[in-house]
Write a structure and sequence with these properties.
Elements lengths: L13 E4 L5 E8 L6 E8 L2 H16 L8 H12 L5 H19 L9 H13 L4 H20 L7 H4 L15 H10 L6 H10 L3 H5 L10 E3 L3 E4 L5 E4 L9 E3 L2 H21 L21 H14 L8 H12 L4 H8 L4 H26 L6
Antiparallel strand pairs: 1-2, 2-3, 4-7, 5-6
Length: 379
């Protein structure tokens, strides 16, 4: 009676002798995109030898190597798949990193043959070509995110981008405004077109996109709630989008100087809306709009700030108002966690990395205060 063999499941592989006295095994591996399957064959002198090769082939197939998928092919699939889940500006950044750096440099490399050293080499080449350490680190972050998804799907085992050492980055020294400088700036721009925007940024620590995406319905009696942000659209122009991170959705208390600036802005906007009549385009009731109700351009606002700061001899950027806000709170003794929440950072570690030196100063001031209250000396 002939021996009957049970049918093996797809992807399990089969081992069998050949007429030449050798052993052979085959494995059918589905391609990651589901379009086709690949049949791989291994052979050897003994059954044990072939079984070892078959197990190695199975492990390789879990890493994408056996299917022959390259990093370039995977990244093309990945960028298309994640596009609906990301803010347009974030997707453009990811796609740009893939197109400019990873696909040209490593696109032909099989997924499981990719090594951390390859990633480090590309980052070094980027910097040698004049790219900043910050840009190289951002490109690594994109690849790390892509390979994390590949890990989830069983295409790779180690995430080599996570293992790759990022280039050392010298963080530029912050130039926050002093309280006197901030007041001088706000006084000089009080009646300017964008003066209320500057006051809001200085007194709330909002990102510019968050400020320009603020609606009147987001305001309370003495606070605001961040619910959206103005970001570059997929194409030209800007559009309202979700905040940068989950923790960017937050409520921020407002000082009197901001509340007064917003009152002036509301009065001014009412007059502009009346002049525009039926040509008014705003349907969200944004706090800051142009003459016909469109969102303000972040670039235009930034240039106006630079002109105002230059006129006062202040070598600062618009984003430095956010740094000034955080620095003022920390020097006043506000806990780092509270400042982190107000800024909408993704974690307190981010805040500590940027402003940790200011917290050290605050601790020193606290110790000095205790020295005054409880002076030391022999008992």
């Amino acid at each position: 009676m002939a021996t009957r063999y049970s049918r093996r499941a797809r992807g399990e592989g089969s081992v069998y002798p050949t007429a030449e006295g050798r052993w052979r095994a085959s494995l059918v591996i589905p391609h990651p995109d589901g379009s086709r399957s690949v049949r791989r064959v291994v052979s050897g002198r003994s059954k044990a030898d072939v079984v070892r090769k078959l197990e190695a082939l199975k492990r390789e197939s879990a890493g994408g190597f056996a299917t022959g998928e390259t990093l370039g092919a995977y990244l093309a699939r990945w960028t298309a798949a994640v596009k609906p889940t990301l803010r347009p500006a974030t997707w453009r950044e990811y796609a740009g990193h893939v197109e400019r750096y990873w696909t040209p440099k490593l696109g032909a490399v099989s997924l499981t043959r990719l090594r951390a050293g390859d990633v480090e080499r590309v980052m070094a080449e980027m910097m040698a070509a004049g790219r900043s350490a910050s840009t190289a680190r951002a490109a690594r972050t994109t690849l790390r995110r892509a390979l994390k998804d590949a890990q989830r799907d069983g295409l790779v085992v180690p995430n080599v981008a996570a293992l790759a050492r990022p280039p050392r980055m010298e963080r530029p020294e912050l130039r926050p405004l002093s309280v006197d400088e901030t007041r001088r700036l706000l006084d000089s721009t009080r009646d300017d077109l964008y003066g209320p925007v500057f006051a809001l940024l200085a007194g709330s620590g909002l990102r510019l996109g968050e400020a320009l995406g603020l609606a009147w319905s987001d305001l309370g009696p003495d606070s605001l709630t961040v619910r959206r942000s103005l970001a570059r659209a997929d194409g030209n122009g800007y559009a309202l989008a979700e905040p940068k991170t989950r923790r960017s959705r937050r409520t921020v208390p407002l000082p009197a100087i901001v509340l007064e600036a917003l009152d002036r802005q509301r009065t001014r906007q009412d007059a502009v809306r009346a002049r525009a009549g039926t040509g008014w385009q705003d349907r969200v009731s944004l706090c800051f709009t142009d003459a016909i109700g469109r969102p303000l351009s972040p670039t235009v606002v930034s240039h106006a700030f630079r002109d105002a700061a230059d006129a006062l001899g202040l070598p600062v950027r618009l984003h430095d108002l956010r740094h000034s806000y955080a620095s003022t709170l920390l020097r006043a003794g506000v806990p780092l966690k509270v400042v982190s929440e107000a800024l909408g950072h993704s974690s307190i570690a981010t805040t500590a990395d940027v402003y940790g030196h200011l917290e050290d100063t605050t601790r020193r001031q606290a110790a000095d205060a205790m020295n005054l209250a409880l002076p030391g000396g022999a008992s």
